[in-house]
Amino acid sequence: MKYISTRGQVAPIGFIDAILMGLANDGGLLVPEHLPQLSEETLRQWQELTYPELALEVFSLFVNDEIPRADLKKLVDDSYGTFRHEEVTPVHKLDDKRYILELFHGPTFAFKDVALQFLGNLYSYVSKKTNSIIHIVGATSGDTGASAIEGVRGKEGIRICILHPHQKVSEVQALQMTTVDDANVLNLAVEGTFDDCQRIIKELFADVDFKHEYHLRAINSINIARILAQTVYYFYAYFQLAKQGVDRKISFSVPTGNFGDIFAGYLAQQMGLPVHKLILATNANNILERFVNVGLYQPGEFRGTYSPSMDIQVASNFERYLYYLNGGNSDVVSTLMAQFKAEGRIIVESDALSHVQSDFSAYSVSNEACLDTLSDYYTKYNYLMDPHTACGAAAADKLAAEDDVTIILSTAHPAKFDESIRLREIRQEYPAQIQALFNKPQIRTVVSGTNEAIKDQLVKFF
User: What are the residue numbers of the active site?
Assistant: First the structure.
């Protein structure tokens, strides 16, 4: 297994080089040179595996022998041994048509832990094995930052800097990042939006000289290891329903802003998991919904919502999907991305749009509809979900076929978004780990949203 760039100007590289490169040196995103095709027999065998056992099998397809199997097993076991639930990502039944895939049982109560606990341990492993410097730079709309910091805090040979949009994440999300006092952690609160933070990160990584001089490594979902780790829970959830005797078509409804979580589901489907429908749920920042439904990818006006982790206009993983949509033609992808940079939009029509709509269904959930769904599910099922999960539930209610079973991805614990939930007069108790955050001092630096301001901070820190 080798990795290539969506823009075609990077020679095929191995797994470790791919995770160290992060953003491809030609400005594209790295993808596997081919996707493993899983037989029905393999899927039947995998159905009986625990989550760590399944993760080991999936990762083994992508790392070759660069990491000995015994070492890979230890990385997996160490990563998922930090989760509060023995199943890691348990599936909760609401009724015969609706299930919740709970992805929030990791250390920071968010789905990002599933990938970032593994990636943090992987970076530590690579640093020790290769005697290399690991300087991680990432941007967060709320959850990635805390998960990434938790994955590497205090680890020798690694430093991490996280950018988050100042005063545009939830209180708990901010506390989870800024109450960490380890010397290898720097939190930058950027005056601007998440899109500003993400743009700065991509442009820093595109500056190849600066990237190499300061040994920058990616923790965002531009790093292919993030996506590969997230494919595992699609397999696991599907297998849990199969083991329960569910014999109807199984679909997934995925709240997403950066296209990473649902792209992982797309890869699992392309590898052979017989997913019926991938339902893409957005909030009012609905660039992805417009793309699926009308073929226009064009940022609109930024809107602050009750589901702030999805307040994203430019989805960093979208380019990976463009690559597969265009049959792996890197020249076409390069042209489209150059067009996007120059004109601010991409348009697909006719056959290409039909292809998109065969891959995904999409629905944009308004702010009030998000909270209405959250409240309705709480009343109907006595199940409290966070606002992002509520967007997934609303999209499932709108788009799921009548005879489908739909698994809704629950991306965060509701305690992380209590400000929104209280608007529907629902009260909850904080888990002890979250309650403790409110008594800790915060450590962060507020900076302007310019490349120069961020570079200055990075040079001082690294």
Answer: 112
